[in-house]
Amino acid sequence: MSVTELNVELFHQINDLGKEYSVANPAIIFIAEYMVYVLALIVLVIWFTRVQKNRVMVISAGIAFIVAEILGKVAGKLHSNQQPFAELANVNQLIEKAVDNSFPSDHTILFFSFCFTFFLFGKRLGVLWILLACLVGVSRIWVGVHYPADVAVGAFIAMVSAFVAYLVVPKLKVINQLLAFYEKIEQMVLPTKMKTKDF
Predict the structure, then answer these.
(1) Nearest to 123 by CA among 60, 171, 53, 195
(2) For 194, which DSSP code?
(3) Containing domain of residue 174, as a range?
(4) Are 117 and 170 in contact (CB under 8 A)?
(5) Strand, helix or coil at 51?
(6) Is there a cis peptide before residue 104, judged by omega within 30 degrees of 0?
(7) What pTM does this model have?
């Protein structure tokens, strides 16, 4: 079996779960479409804990995401495929999406960039961050808008970017200077003592 055939076969195995376990579809659709808003809210909450380590972590995750997105666009130029629902028959498509290049998965890049960074920084319940990112990736296959390869490559690019950002960003003098400048401005607007304890 070729890599392409394996990719299609694995897609159908996951996508067909939506037919077999249709009761789970509303939850999977929420995860695939709207969990991104939950992640944004979580990031805001972490930022406004006003703990410096948390803020460095969020900045690292944001930079990892930007780098991963750029790498993802490059990967998309080297290889492209449309969404499964546009290329295959009998796809259980659960959400609407415009037809374009689905390689690699942007949702997967976003979630793995942030969740893997949080994991590396040793956040509580660290493994759950990885499980959340994996769940989002699988949900994108389940609803019919990505192949497993789209998700796998997106996850790989994001994790590599997150690991490099984790090693480099906290040591960058300019990041610490900009964060210190921001916190001075924040203190003038919201005069509250910065916390040293993690959330």
Answers:
(1) 53
(2) P
(3) 31-189
(4) no
(5) strand
(6) yes
(7) 0.91
Q: How many CB atoms lie within 10 A of CB 7?
A: 17
- For residue 186, name the pLDDT band (cuts at 50, 70, 90): confident
Instruction: Give residues with Cβ within 8 angstroms of 86, minimum separation 6.
Output: 99
Phi, psi values for residue 91, rounded to 5°:
-90, 135
What confidence score (pLDDT) does residue 195 get? Answer: 58
pLDDT at res. 174: 92
Is residue 20 a part of any domain in this protein? no
2 pLDDT more than 90: no
What is the per-residue pLDDT for 184? 87
Amino acid at 167: L
Is 146 a member of any domain? yes
Which contacts of 129-135 are long-range, i.e. CB under 8 A and separated by 24 or more positions?
132/35, 133/108, 135/31
What angle (nearest 5°) sits at the alpha carbon of residue 160, between those of residues 154 and 166? 130
* Count: domains in the chain: 1
pLDDT tens-digit readout, 119-169: 999 867 789 999 999 999 999 999 999 999 999 999 999 999 999 999 999
Question: Using a CB cutoff of 8 Å and minimum separation of 24, what contacts does 169-177 make?
Answer: 169/56, 169/59, 169/60, 169/63, 170/56, 170/60, 175/56, 175/59, 176/56
- The answer as to whether 194 is a domain residue is no
CA distance 171 to 4: 42
Alpha-carbon dihedral of residues 128, 132, 138, 144, nearest 10 degrees? 160
